[in-house]
Amino acid sequence: MAKGQHKSPDFLKLQPFGQVPAFQDELTTVFESRAICKYICNKFPEKGNQTLMGGGDGGLLSRTSVDQWLEAEGQSFIPPSSALVFQLAFVPMFGFKQDPAAIEQNEAKLANVLDVYDCRLGESKFLAGDDFTLADMAHLPNGHILVSKNEDLFMSRKNVGRWWEEISARPAWKKVVEMQNAPQG
Questions:
Q1: Taking the model in full, what pTM does it have?
Q2: 31 pairs with which residues across the strands?
Q3: By C-alpha distance, which of 89, 149, 150, 79 is closest to 112?
Q4: pLDDT for res 58
């Protein structure tokens, strides 16, 4: 989006905030990554991982647990992790100077979040229970960059480290990483 296509009138019809992502099919247009994931899971419940929206029983408690931890990801994990991804990956990529104070502040905030996760992951295999769900999947993009820049944030915590190793080793995620690393053009 370096050329500003995301601010064009046509794109703003799809995503009124002029941000990525936006998803369109024959039925509707959906924006915001978590909403897109939920839409796809609900539209194609017979495809892929049957537990992404909640445990195999599909009950209210398992769906609520997924929603709860997906909200925790959006409200608690994303703010400091996105600030760190910006400082550790994008700032150097564009040749700018990193802000050590912003890095330190957001590492401390993220450490607090990961401490809560470590406690939770001592009680269950994944954040929302014993099945891999959207609540786990949502952590992969920022987590991948952060682990490559500062592995200790995740791996110094026993349960977070175990969880990260498991979710980041999933074949579908490995394929995403492979596609991202493939030469463009």
A1: 0.87
A2: 22
A3: 79
A4: 57
**Residue 57 scores a pLDDT above 80:** no
Q: Hunting for tokens 């910006």 — which residue is that?
A: 86
Tell me, what amino acid is at 39?
Y
3-state DSSP of the chain:
CCCCHHHCHHHHHHCCCCCCCEEECCCCEEECHHHHHHHHHHHCCCCCCCCCCCCCCCCHHHHHHHHHHHHHHHHHHHHHHHHHHHHHHHHHHCCCCCCHHHHHHHHHHHHHHHHHHHHHHCCCCECCECCCCHHHHCCHHHHHHHHHHCCHHHHCCHHHHHHHHHHHCCHHHHHHHHHHHCCCC
Question: Distance from CA of residue 121 to its chain's centroid?
Answer: 17
List domains and CATH numbers for the chain.
5-43 (3.40.30.10), 60-175 (1.20.1050.10)
Structure tokens at 110: 């993220």
What is the reported pLDDT for 84?
Answer: 98
- Between these two residues, 44 and 111, which has the higher pLDDT value? 111
Using the predicted structure, report yes or no on whether residue 162 has a pLDDT greater than 90.
yes
Which residue, among 121, 130, 116, has the nearest Cα to 162 in the 3D structure?
121
Report how far residue 35's alpha carbon sits from residue 141's, in angstroms, rounded to the nearest whole number: 16
